[in-house]
Recover the amino acids of this structure.
């Protein structure tokens, strides 16, 4: 960003045109990655949700209380809507570029969705995610990660997402059993475990895999992003544990 969105004029000046041209290097990188990994492995494209992106753009970075973005949303709803549509249209163009460049699925991160007041979560964030998903090709699976918002699972699914990615606070089998919609679920090992030991990582990964064996469509993943000080030997152990896992046979 060349400037923080700290005034109406800066929001009006925000230019979301020619996204595919401005971010052409992303498409080039994806095409190179696809060529390297071949067609046998899934390639994911990802991006932030409009709400999460807006928090950084309005606050000027991360925030403790998110006072500026919330004040904008409640005090100037038309200006907030203008900003959200600009961001949403840019994200749509970015995702279409990624799809054209060979990704198999799109993952949307609403990492700051949990700062939205519960009754307003749909209007502040989820309706814009739905707007994006509605504009994308129907044959591309959409994975939606909303940190700390698994209790909004029914509304998360109303966005059109086919996979819900959840954080490590969620009881995965219980959540999967509570929802009747046909969807896949992804997650949710605590990233902090990668700072411990290979033995602990293997034990916790196997426990989660065994729990989710009965559920078709389960995708193993961390419950949020990997931490900078994660140990390489733990990452290697996790990858080996997951890729070599064989579900127990029940007789």
């Amino acid at each position: 960003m060349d400037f923080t969105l700290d005034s109406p004029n800066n929001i009006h000046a925000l230019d979301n045109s020619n996204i595919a041209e401005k971010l052409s290097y992303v498409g080039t990188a994806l095409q190179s990655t696809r060529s390297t990994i071949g067609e046998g492995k899934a390639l994911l494209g990802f991006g932030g949700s409009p709400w999460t992106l807006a928090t950084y753009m309005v606050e000027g970075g991360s925030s403790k209380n998110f006072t500026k973005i919330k004040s904008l949303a409640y005090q100037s709803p038309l200006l907030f809507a203008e900003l959200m549509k600009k961001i949403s249209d840019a994200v749509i163009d970015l995702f279409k570029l990624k799809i054209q460049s060979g990704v198999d699925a799109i993952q949307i991160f609403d990492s700051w969705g949990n700062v939205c007041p519960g009754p307003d979560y749909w209007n502040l964030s989820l309706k814009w995610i739905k707007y994006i998903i509605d504009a994308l090709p129907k044959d591309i699976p959409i994975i939606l990660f909303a940190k700390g918002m698994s209790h909004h699972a029914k509304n998360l699914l109303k966005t059109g997402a086919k996979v819900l990615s959840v954080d490590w606070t969620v009881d995965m089998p219980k959540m999967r059993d509570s929802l009747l919609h046909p969807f896949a679920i992804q997650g949710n090992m605590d990233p902090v475990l990668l700072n411990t030991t290979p033995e602990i990582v293997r034990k916790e990964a196997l426990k989660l895999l065994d729990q989710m064996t009965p559920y078709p469509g389960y995708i193993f993943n961390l419950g949020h992003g990997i931490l900078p000080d994660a140990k390489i030997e733990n990452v290697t152990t996790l990858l080996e544990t997951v890729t070599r896992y064989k579900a127990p046979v029940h007789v």
